[in-house]
Design goal:
Strand 1, helix 1 and strand 2 form a beta-alpha-beta unit. The model has no long low-confidence stretch (mean pLDDT about 95). Helix 12 runs parallel beside helix 14 and helix 16 packs antiparallel against helix 17. It is built from 18 helices and 8 strands. The protein has about 425 residues and is of the alpha/beta class.
Length: about 425
């Protein structure tokens, strides 16, 4: 079993994807952006390898305007060596990659031009995965599309247009239930008939259920659509965000809910793609919770979280420190429960200043007189201006200047180091 995340990372220094406006998409600009994005993807692969993350969804934006006529660059040739190296690295690490063309990739539209754009977009995604040298088990995930006033007719349009796809795209394609139109039962009917693997999405099923069947039963039903060539069965897992519209993904994964889902899985040969706002952070939580790990892995995680936790809850900060003193026990669930509790607390001025003062301790002996003066000014103004961001930006600049590695990787600076 592999557990992974989608598209972006949280708190990983200098890992961002870039694009541009259509009017600025010159061949030179596009090549510059593609070079940058491939380097970022390479860094994400390295991060995933270092953290035993073996499932990752690549952003559709990796090649800006990948299927748009404005992009005439032969990027698959121009960056052949980079693409091959990234794919080889992922394969050597037994990492499964995928892509998920977005909601506007509508293969069953009654509009011929919309269908043609969808085919071109799928072709771009398939070409990218091919350029990495990946086999068909590195999938493309797609929703069925719209209803257009007659669901049965729309489903037939999907089947007809699927049949017209390039064989290599058809080999990669898997289909998924959605939260508005097509239930898992309806997607299974298409998948079974057309021999297309089906991804089960638990939150989509909560919002748009077929019936009252359990997650485990529906996952078992989907298993029959997967073959050896398709790779291990895949499911999408997410949790409903509080006070948001139905289907909105939560900020983080509640491990108690996830573990209940995990323990009811019908078999172990399942890859779980987490769809959650904090991306790799929740992936690490879930991987730690479902594997027998050494205490050092929680200590490494704590080194990244600690000042973020201190900023929100000094009480939970102390409880976690005490929890990790016992080296004979690995309290994974308790550890992440305390972190989640702390990060759910409102930011209070006193706690925020306390955390900032702790971080300043890394620099007070080496800071210049001007930097000390600036720190004192920001501290004095705290009670009146409460400009937390200005203080953190100042401390981040010092972190970069003095190359304080411990802080460079800290989630306390997550909004600055991405």
């Amino acid at each position: 079993m592999a557990i992974g995340y989608a598209c972006l990372t949280v708190g990983i220094p200098k890992v961002t994807f870039k694009t541009c406006r259509l009017k600025n998409a010159t061949p030179e600009k596009l090549n510059t952006l593609i070079e940058h994005n491939l380097k970022a993807l390479d860094q994400i692969i390295d991060y995933n390898i270092a953290n035993n993350i073996k499932l990752f969804r690549i952003s559709s934006d990796i090649i800006p305007f990948g299927s748009h006529p404005v992009n005439e660059n032969k990027w698959w040739d121009d960056f052949k060596d980079d693409l091959t190296a990234i794919g080889q690295k992922a394969m050597e690490a037994n990492m499964r990659l995928s892509m998920h063309p977005g909601q506007y990739t509508v293969l069953n539209s009654p509009s011929a031009s919309v269908v043609e754009r969808a085919k071109a977009y799928l072709a771009y995604h398939n070409l990218f995965l091919d350029s990495l040298g990946l086999e068909a088990s590195h999938n493309l995930i797609l929703h069925i599309g719209g209803v257009y006033g007659n669901k049965e007719t729309a489903m037939e349009h999907f089947k007809d247009n699927f049949q017209q796809l390039d064989p290599n795209i058809k080999k990669r394609l898997v289909i998924e239930n959605d939260d508005k139109a097509y239930t898992i039962e309806e997607v299974l009917s298409i998948g079974s008939q057309m021999k297309i693997p089906v991804v089960y999405d638990n939150l989509h099923n909560q919002v748009n259920p077929a019936d009252s069947s359990s997650d485990a039963y529906l996952i078992q039903m989907c298993q029959s659509t997967w073959t050896k060539e398709d790779g291990p069965q895949k499911v999408h897992y997410s949790q409903q965000a509080m006070n948001k519209k139905p289907g909105s993904h939560s900020a983080t994964i509640d491990l108690d809910l996830f573990m209940d889902f995990y323990h009811h899985l019908p078999h172990s040969e399942i890859d779980i793609m987490l769809e959650v706002k904090d991306k790799n952070l929740s992936a690490m939580k879930a991987i730690h919770a479902t594997n027998a790990i050494a205490i050092k892995y929680l200590e490494t995680a704590w080194s990244r979280y600690k000042y973020w936790v201190l900023e929100r809850s000094p009480q939970d900060y102390q409880l976690i420190r005490t929890l990790l003193k016992d080296k004979t026990h690995v309290p994974t669930l308790d550890f992440y429960r305390l972190i989640d509790h702390a990060l759910a607390q409102p930011l209070e001025d006193g706690n925020a200043l306390n955390a900032a003062q702790h971080v300043w301790g890394y620099f007070k002996k080496q800071a210049t007189p001007k930097e000390l003066e600036r720190y004192n000014i920001l501290t004095e103004r705290w009670t009146t201006e409460k400009n937390i961001k200005a203080m953190k930006r100042f401390l981040w600049n010092l972190t970069v200047k003095y190359r304080e590695r411990y802080l460079l990787e800290s989630l306390y600076f997550r909004e600055f180091n991405e």
